[in-house]
TrEMBL record, chain A:
Heterodimer of an alpha and a beta subunit. It holds the Pfam family ETF. The lineage of its organism: Bacteria, Pseudomonadati, Pseudomonadota, Alphaproteobacteria, Acetobacterales. InterPro entries: ET-Flavoprotein_bsu_CS, ETF_a/b_N, ETF_b, ETF_beta_N, Rossmann-like_a/b/a_fold, Sigma_54_int. SMART domains: ETF. Belongs to the ETF beta-subunit/FixA family. GO terms for biological process: carboxylic acid catabolic process; regulation of DNA-templated transcription. The electron transfer flavoprotein serves as a specific electron acceptor for other dehydrogenases. It transfers the electrons to the main respiratory chain via ETF-ubiquinone oxidoreductase (ETF dehydrogenase). Keywords: Electron transport, Transport. Its cofactor is AMP. This is Electron transfer flavoprotein subunit beta. The keyword Transport applies.
UniProtKB/TrEMBL annotation, chain B:
Residues 3-181 form the Electron transfer flavoprotein alpha/beta-subunit N-terminal domain. PROSITE patterns: ETF_ALPHA (PS00696). Its cofactor is FAD. This is Electron transfer flavoprotein subunit alpha. InterPro entries: DHS-like_NAD/FAD-binding_dom, ETF_a/b_N, ETF_a/FixB, ETF_alpha_N, ETF_asu_C, ETF_asu_C_CS, Rossmann-like_a/b/a_fold. FAD binds at residues 226-227, 240-244, 257-264, 278. Binds 1 FAD per dimer. GO terms for molecular function: electron transfer activity; flavin adenine dinucleotide binding. The keyword Electron transport applies. The electron transfer flavoprotein serves as a specific electron acceptor for other dehydrogenases. It transfers the electrons to the main respiratory chain via ETF-ubiquinone oxidoreductase (ETF dehydrogenase). It comes from Komagataeibacter swingsii. The keyword Nucleus does not apply. Signal peptide: none annotated. The lineage of its organism: Bacteria, Pseudomonadati, Pseudomonadota, Alphaproteobacteria, Acetobacterales. It comes from the Bacteria.
Length: 249, 312
């Protein structure tokens, strides 16, 4: 069976993002970029399914600038077999990305699409659900455990008060939460091998998708800064301050 | 303009976060609400008592389908014709359902809003709250989740809305609800608690993590955790505060043995008063803490309890 894994290139999670001086967005020029951490988990899950013999082929997809090639190479170094770059300079939104993915799903006919639950740049948490909606297929979001057995997948999902289990007929859409697995680092030999793996390059127009964003950014600003307070010497002083100064207890 | 709010409830009681979503919605137009589930009738009764609600739509369902995104998204899409905006509190349920409904309506959702500028323009955090984006939607309908900590909840009593039945559609099929496992707790809900006591990696293990309970008891607090504490199995995932966990903004947040990485701060930095107890004076948590004590939490914890008993 075939798995499609969409991956996004984002500012590395260890880097503190800086708002551009003109308030038009967040600075990405000259900033270290990496694969969205949740997407790494999605790739890892697909690779593990392949190692178990459940999956025969993994296709990584990225929608974005030409540089997203690096992210696809990382996915292939982790174990994806081939990749597709859908190149666009237009700002991507979950809706437009879901439309691109729908077109690719119709072409590639994967049994499973595994995405990260959210991208750590726009924090939208929407693409997987939207793809499932557009395809009219079942969804298992915020997955912490995935079990594929003949024709269906059982997904344990993280919900607010605990966890929930659903069973989905294939093809199905899954979005990965942090606890699904711990992604591997690509080894040097695998990074070398990934360079020779096939990468197809197309554009949204080839798939007939209009990428025009529905949300326009009016401005981007730094949040109000919290000031560091004071260090106290004892629990007694803390309790007294909380009671008499902050008046919160 | 009329606005529909999809409510979260527990056994018929409307969650406080949903009352914050109603507060946000009432800034946009007349508010109708939707409740689903086996106990939708009880929830509808509670919802009808919320001031400002015009009409309650109840979809009672005992098949488990109301637990699934597919039929609920289909229902929201069916109901959308009568509304300019569809809102919900940013809960795991809403995040599962609303984007799917948005796709059915060809709308780009606007998640996690913290402010409303006008009917099309909203403010939302991006990059784990490192920046606030003001975005304007070109869609005819808006689909929005609301960060509850940014809107004061409306009252729970005083209203008198009408109640109407709606039917949950079958959805596209292929998805079956198996089970829900909820962890039981006598403590206040993390997202609406007045005081939160959170533990991190510094708690070292699950046994030690329980040492936070006597302190939480004294303060009537909910207990939270960093991702490191959850990953290491000290507590289960619903305790996690942060970018990918719960967003809290209590009157008092006490961080015990938490370093204060940006992903954790994303979930608690809007708290009114932050207290940090950490043995590392350089820990980034001190940059946002109003009060800090540098020291071993295992020494300070019993002292705090003793002081609270004394002063109280
Ligand atoms: C995509 C992504 C999403 C994430 N989402 C979240 C999220 O939602 N929430 C979240 O919390 N994290 C999240 N993280 C993880 C985050 O980056 C940090 O790794 C995590 O918050 C660290 O937890 P911690 O502070 O408990 O652990 P540590 O960083 O290990 O800090 C432990 C602290 O305890 C102190 N300490 C140790 N022993 C004692 C003692 N005896 N007395 C006093 N102090 C002591 C230490 O000085 C240290 O500062 C995310 C990471 C990624 C990549």
């Amino acid at each position: 069976m075939k798995v499609l894994v969409p991956v996004k290139r984002v500012i590395d999670y260890n880097i503190k993002p800086r708002v551009k001086a003109d308030g038009s967005g967040v600075e990405t020029a000259g900033v270290k970029m990496s694969m969205n951490p949740f997407d790494e988990i999605a790739v890892e899950e697909a690779v593990r399914l392949k190692e178990k013999g459940v999956v025969s082929e993994i296709i990584a997809v990225s929608i974005g600038e030409a540089k997203a090639q690096d992210t696809l190479r990382t996915a292939m170094a982790m174990g994806a077999d081939r990749s597709i770059l859908v190149e666009t300079d237009v700002v991507t939104e979950p809706l437009s990305v879901a439309k691109v993915l729908k077109a690719l799903v119709e072409k590639e006919k994967p049994d499973l699409i595994i995405l990260g639950k959210q991208a750590i740049d726009d924090d939208m948490n929407a693409t997987g659900q939207m793809l499932a909606g557009l395809l009219g297929r079942p969804q298992g979001t915020f997955a912490s455990k995935v079990d594929v057995t003949d024709g269906s997948v059982t997904v344990m999902r993280e919900i607010d008060g605990g966890s929930q289990t659903v069973k989905l007929a294939l093809p199905a859409i899954i979005t990965a939460d942090l606890r699904l697995n711990e992604p591997r680092y690509a080894s040097l030999p695998n990074i070398m091998k990934a360079r020779k793996k096939p990468m197809e390059k197309i554009t949204p127009a080839d798939l007939g998708v209009d990428m025009t964003p529905r949300l326009s950014v009016v401005s981007v600003a730094e949040p109000p800064e919290r000031k560091a307070g004071i260090k106290l010497d004892s629990a007694a002083e803390l309790v007294s301050r909380l009671r008499n100064e902050a008046k919160v207890i | 303009m009329a606005v529909l709010v999809y409510l979260d409830h527990e056994g018929g009681a409307i969650r406080q976060a949903s009352r914050s979503a109603i507060a946000a919605a009432s800034r946009l137009g007349d508010v109708d609400v939707l409740v689903t589930g086996p106990d939708a009738a009880a929830a509808a009764k509670s919802a009808a008592a919320i001031p400002g609600v015009k009409k309650v739509l109840q979809a009672t369902d005992t098949t488990g389908n109301s637990e699934l995104a597919e039929p609920v998204a289909a229902l929201l899409a069916d109901l959308a014709a009568g509304y300019t905006h569809i809102l919900a509190a940013s809960s795991a349920t809403a995040k599962n359902v609303l984007p799917r409904a948005a796709a059915l309506l060809d709308v780009q959702p606007i998640p996690d809003i913290v402010a409303i500028n006008d009917a099309d323009t909203f403010v939302r955090p991006i990059y784990a709250g490192s920046a606030l984006a003001t975005v304007k939607s070109a869609d005819a309908k808006k689909i929005i989740t609301v960060r509850a900590s940014s809107f004061d909840p409306v009252a729970g009593e005083g209203g008198n809305a009408t109640i109407e039945d709606v039917a949950l559609p079958a959805g596209p099929g292929g998805s079956t609800f198996i089970a829900t496992e909820l962890s039981k707790s006598e403590r206040p809900e993390l997202e609406s608690a007045r005081v939160v006591v959170s533990g991190g990696n510094g708690m070292l293990n699950g046994e030690n993590f329980k040492l936070l309970e006597p302190l939480a008891d004294r303060l009537g607090a909910a207990i939270g955790a960093s991702r490191a504490a959850v990953d290491k199995g000290f507590v289960s995932n619903e305790y996690q505060v942060g970018q990918t966990g719960k967003i809290v903004a209590p009157e008092l947040y006490i961080a015990m043995g938490i370093s204060g990485q940006i992903q954790h701060l994303a979930g608690m930095k809007d708290s009114k008063v932050i207290v940090a107890i950490n043995k590392d004076p350089e820990a980034p948590i001190f940059q946002v803490a109003d009060y800090g004590i540098v020291g071993d939490l295992f020494t300070i914890l019993p002292q705090l309890e003793a002081e609270l008993d004394k002063a109280g």
